[in-house]
Amino acid sequence: MDRTIETEFRQSLKHTRSFLGWIIGVLVLVYLVSGTYSISTNEIGVLQRFGRVIDADVRPGIHFAFPWPIDRINRVAVKEVKRIFIDDFYEQGANADLFYRFTGLHSNCISGDNNIITLNCVLQYTIANPHHYLFHVEQVDIALRSMACSTIIHCLATMPVDETLTFGKKQVENYIKLNLQERLDHLGCGINITFVELKDVRPPSIVQHYFDDVINAKIDHRKMVSKAESYRNERIPEAKGQSIRTVQEAEAYKNKVCAEATGETHRFLAQLSEYKKNPQITRQRLYHDLITTVYPLLDTKIVVDGDAVHIRLIQSEK
Amino acid sequence: MILCVGLAYFALYTVKEDEYVIVTRFGNPTRVISKPGLQLKWPGFIEKVNRIDRRINVFVTLPIQLLLGDKNPIIVTCYIAWRVSDPLRFIQSLTFVENARQKLADMVTSQLGSALGDFTLDNIINTVPDMVKLTGIEESITLNCNARTTQEYGVEVIRMGFRRINYPSIVAEAVYNRMRAEREKEAKKFRAEGAEAASKIEAETDREVSELLAKAYKESEIIKGEGDREAMRIYAEAYGQDRDFFAFKKSLETYEKILQSKSTLVLSTESELFKYLTDYKIKGQ
To answer: In the structure, how many helices (H) and strands (E) does chain A have?
Structure first.
């Protein structure tokens, strides 16, 4: 009886052992396979074995590695363009409010000719060196922001405000791109600045109006000159027209006067030739024609005997 | 086998790429591991693993108000990039990262205070780029700090830089006022110049116009004069042929014109008109 129980026990133990064996075998297999990983196309992998980097350039695809805690994979998105917004010098926004609450000061930047200016900056970057990015600098974004701000200050401190506000923008952007990259490389951050843009560069709101007024003044200047020129464009042609008219009127007068003279004298000369043929007769005829015409029209006619009195006509005051 | 695994767990440890490890035995540091990988130690409580981040740490100081050499006040904020260069010395002197930051901030602040005292506002901002010494100041402070920190704390200061430079409120106000005045002056100048240019053009125009008209008037008078002269010549030439007849005809024309309905004519019987009134006989009979 005992033998049977013992045999049965031993048998069951054997079964259990083999069964357990299978399970353990499967678990070990699963564990070993768990180290397999994949890298997607816009990433690069960094493989560490027991903490030490053994491959800092794992290409996209499926790879086999030992499972944790032996191997560990970090994925870095190298194709992704990351963006950072530098608003530390802008007078509005979260950063500005924080600064104001802490210091009572407005966020801004000082220009080379001691003017105050406010601006925003957009930076785009990619991760160029995954190993450096992961292991050289702690909190790369703080480093990036700090050094970007520093570069901006350095550049603006040498430029006059009028330049920065207008054509100098490109120069500042180029300076930032070069200088910031230098600083980042000096620290070994492993990132590459791809794009820099300055946005909304303008004087602080307090004095914005006066800067705008200068532009308005330039416009007013042009307007005044333009108005004067149109006055000129009106008056000169007018005067020229008037001049021509005046001369033409004189010519017309000349023609008229000469024509009148010619006409009158022609008439006279015609009469003269007739007169020359018979002077006395012509004289009397003309005289009598006149008296006949004029006499009836007169109001008062007084005939006085010539011997009687000499009459002197005195101008009366009536 | 279980014992092996247990031992492995307590005796083996990894050192990561971004850290130093200092192994301490009963609180005393025995060795420094700077190479990453798998390492051995005495298990359990006999030896302890202390990890120190070896990466570069960048932090930002609080705003500090300082005076420049020309007594101009400015408020600066800096960033400091540092790292542990000698882990043993670091552990012994500062131990914690927070202490390091505090110490560094204090050091940089005092260095800044004295450094800026040697410069004027013209060295901070200037339209002549060579006058601006910001980079030089940053580099010299970095160097000076580094000399001390490497020795005393096992810390390397890689770079310090200006993150913000601002004016205190009072100074800022003054700057705003000045900016306002400058722009007002400029606007005024443009408007004045515009008015001046405009009135110049107008005056020019008026002058040219009167010149043109005067010239035309002169010419017209000459032409008229020519006309008058010509007419007079024609008359003189014609009437001159018989002055007497001309006088006679002209007088008759004048009488016709002046003897109107309102006129009173006084005639003598001696006049030619009434000759035949008193004497109708034929002459010579």
So the answer is: 8, 11
**Distance between CA atoms of B253 and A41, rounded to whole angstroms?**
123
- Total CB pairs under 8 A between chain A and B: 341
For residue B239, the chain A residues in CB contact (below 8 A) are 265, 268
**What proportion of chain B, given as a percentage, has pLDDT over 70?**
92
Tens-place pLDDT, residues A230-247: 999 999 999 999 999 999
- The structural domains of chain B, with segments of one domain joined by +, span 2-52, 57-172
**Nearest-neighbour CA in chain A from B243: distance (Å):** 11
* Model pLDDT, residue A309: 57
B195-214: per-residue pLDDT in tens?
Answer: 999 999 999 999 999 999 99
Residues B158, A186: C-beta atoms closer than 8 Å: yes
CA distance A237 to chain B (A): 9
DSSP assignment string, B138-158: HHHHHHHHHHHHHHHHSEEEE
Angstrom distance (rounded) from CA A286 to CA A280: 10
Instruction: Spell out which residues of chain A touch residue B235, defining contact as CB-CB under 8 Å.
Output: 261, 264-265
What chain A holds in terms of domains, given with CATH numbers, is 18-76 (no CATH), 82-203 (3.30.479.30), 221-318 (no CATH)
Class of domain B57-172: alpha beta
pTM of the model: 0.75
